[in-house]
Amino acid sequence: MAEVVLSGVSKSFGAETALQNVSMTIPDGSFVVLLGPTGAGKTTTLRMVSGLDKPSSGSISIGGRDTAGLTPAQRDVAMVFQQYSLYPHLTVRQNLEFPLKSPILRTPQAEIDRKVGEVAEVLQISHKLDNKATALSGGEMQRVSIGRALVRDPSVYLMDEPLSSLDAKLRSDLRIELKSIQADSGATLLYVTHDQIEAMTMATHVGVLDKGKLVQFGSPRDIYENPVSVYAASRLGQPRINVLPADIFGGAPDLATHIGLRPEQIVQGEGEESIVQRVEHLGDQTRLHLTFKAHDLITVTDAHTTLKEGDIVRIRPHKPFYFDATGARLA
Amino acid sequence: MSFSVTEPAKSTKWIAGILVVGYAIITLIPLLWIIATGFKSPTDSIAYPPVVVFEPTLEGYVNLFTDRTRATEQMLEEAGPPETWYEEIVRARGTVISGPSRYGERFLNSVIIGFGSTALCMILGTMAAYAFSRFKVPLKDDLLFFILSTRMMPPIAVAIPIFLMFRNLGLNDTHLGMILLYTAVNLSLSVWLLKGFIDEIPIEYEEAALIDGYTRFQAFYKVVLPQAATGIASTAIFCLIFAWNEYAFAVLLTSGTAQTAPPFIPTIIGTSGKDWPAVAAGATIFLVPVMVFTILLRKHLLRGITFGAVRK
């Protein structure tokens, strides 16, 4: 287990800049989720920590040791790839044993059997151990791929959207499982996703990436309650934060061009009138699609609401976020 | 490109079947003729019109593996009755076995040189192909073109320089010389074919192996090679077939110790009359190793002939 420190890391592929001056400290034993859309530089960051790619500038240290010039094997990292890359010529068991049998680890066979059995149990693939890796469903492959990382005890786990190809039930099971494995073992885990639920539920820290820049780094709650920009604010929260012109309710600070309203920042029943466009009953909550002064916004209301299309709801903002023209947070 | 998934009509299947069988028979006739001739007597072998039904004899094979001298009645009497079935065959022609022929040695030379150069070609070829496929090699495209350009003329076109080089280096009529020569000729083919196969293997597998604690070279042989097995097998067959059948260089550069079977077989034809059955027997045996090798790897060959155009 180790602390990972990125300082001033940049990476460009030809003329294209994938990562720009990213500095971040991943504390020992933390579960850090990198959040951002495709092309934000999440995977690039992961690959540079793993040693598969080298930073164009800046440095990365793992456990206080500078990684420049170290091969992936020497860095002692385990990685789960997005395209689950199981070795197709091996069985599931052989895939799981593969890292343990590496010349670096040379694990005794009894130990290998124990660990493989344990991990297979956790990932619910015990009955598939003797299958060829290619004879699995996508979800099973992904689990084996996660298992191949979990059999090890590396200084840091790197995971690139490991749950993306699983069905909803398995995904939520594995979210909990991964989180508890990490919490129990005290492993350091760097996790890439664009799924905000994964970020909110598992992360001790979230790094929000935008076009190769780290725009905010902090606890999920911190980022949710105290976003630095429209971009960071819109990464977390469901339904998404509503962004409207700043003066729509009046009382905006100088320089503010936009107001950001999460559902809990919209008080219903007082203020100005809006029209209900659509009511979505989700069971535990109900989403209201409103039109307010020709702008659409979405909020949440009581699960058993009697509101229906065309009704009028009064709304007013409550401690909203204000953003300037560049999207940066003002208040 | 799309393919119809509907079953072809029964009549279409029959016509296709007949065409395939017909084509197979036509291409197999020379082979059958060679095999049959090996079991004919010399008279039957030159009979016109050719005899299809004949009494098989092993005379051709006995002649292939033995040297014989004409013996007088007196010598035959002194030698006593023939002790073995093959001596009996030889005696019937008024000759005695004076020793084993050189066919065995020449055949062994073919095996050493053919398989040796194929093995060397595969070792060098896979590593070169891997490097071209995965690494940033300076002037990669130019190098690949240069490698291919060695195939843009018939290899025999450079026979004279090679002959002189071999003479100066002392490689004339050596196994090493022939292995190096055939490897040099085949290497361009194997690099190009194998590069195509290795290009198809996603790089993620190696990356996973690197992370799993293996070195680049270990990742290469533990992860890439098993997946390239198909390509390696089919490329090996192509290389072996070339090296095995090569005649012109073998005639030019080998005459004794390292002579392969192809230049030797015509010399069997003999001093007393044309011994076609022995030649045919030599050719038949010569066919066997490549046939066995190809049959063992035929599953891969079929896949290889599509040159990786079809993804599974």
What report would you give on this structure?
The complex is a heterodimer of chains A (331) and B (312). With 331 residues, chain A is an alpha+beta fold. Chain A is 25% helix and 32% strand. Chain A has nine helices and 17 strands. In chain A, β4 and β5 (65-66) form a beta hairpin. Chain A is globular and about 70 Å long. Chain B has 312 residues and is mainly α. Chain B has helices at residues 10-38, 42-45, 59-65, 73-79, 85-92, 103-134, 140-149, 159-169, 175-200, 204-211, 216-227, 229-245, 248-253, 261-264, 276-296, 298-305; strands spanning 66-70, 95-100. Chain A binds chain B through residues 50-52, 71-73, 77-79, 81, 83, 85, 87-89, 98-99, 102-105, 148, and chain B through 202, 204-205, 207-215, 218, 223, 226-227.
Q: Characteristics of this structure?
A:
heterodimer, A: alpha+beta, Rossmann fold, OB fold (Dihydrolipoamide Acetyltransferase, E2P), 6-stranded mixed beta sheet, 17 strands, 25% helix, globular, B: mainly alpha, MetI-like fold, 2 domains, 67% helix
Structural topology:
The complex is a heterodimer of chains A (331) and B (312).
Chain A: E1 4-13, E2 16-26, E3 31-35, H1 42-50, E4 57-62, E5 65-66, H2 72-75, E6 77-80, H3 92-97, H4 109-122, H5 138-150, E7 156-160, H6 168-185, E8 189-193, H7 196-202, E9 205-210, E10 213-218, H8 220-225, H9 230-235, E11 242-245, E12 258-261, E13 266-281, E14 286-292, E15 295-301, E16 312-317, E17 321-323
Chain B: H1 10-38, H2 42-45, H3 59-65, E1 66-70, H4 73-79, H5 85-92, E2 95-100, H6 103-134, H7 140-149, H8 159-169, H9 175-200, H10 204-211, H11 216-227, H12 229-245, H13 248-253, H14 261-264, H15 276-296, H16 298-305
Antiparallel strand pairs in B: 1-2
Helix pairs in contact in B: 1-15, 3-15, 6-9, 6-12, 7-9, 9-12, 10-11, 12-16
